[in-house]
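Researcher: Quick test of sequence recovery. Tokens follow.
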């Protein structure tokens, strides 16, 4: 009563549950790269449209955001490593209060003790 569907071999080759569908991923990746190439090569794609607005947003930004959303908005591992943990360096301390300045005579006009 064993079927190939329940064999350990087919489960090992299956992608994890959080992996995006490969067909959707391929389409979004192609759209993002095509939009990037279009913006880089064709100057009119860098402008804006009355109906759509700023074209690089729709040709590059939105496909790249869709690509990132297929991975459930996970941050790159390098950013996660840098964010975790404590800050390095000493803890900030309060400054001690500076004593009031001693009044000095005004010596600009040669007479000590007379203010200007």
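Model:
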């Amino acid at each position: 009563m064993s079927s190939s569907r329940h064999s350990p071999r087919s489960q090992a080759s299956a992608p994890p549950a959080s992996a995006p569908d490969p067909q959707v991923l391929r389409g979004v990746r192609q759209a993002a790269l095509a939009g990037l190439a279009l913006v880089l090569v064709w100057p009119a794609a860098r402008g804006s449209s009355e109906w759509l607005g700023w074209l690089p947003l729709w040709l590059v930004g939105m496909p790249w955001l869709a690509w990132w959303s297929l991975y459930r908005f996970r941050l790159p591992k390098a950013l996660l490593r840098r964010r975790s943990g404590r800050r390095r360096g000493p803890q900030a301390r309060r400054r001690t209060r500076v004593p009031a300045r001693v009044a000095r005579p005004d010596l600009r006009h040669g007479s000590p003790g007379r203010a200007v």
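The first strand starts at residue 48 and ends at 49.
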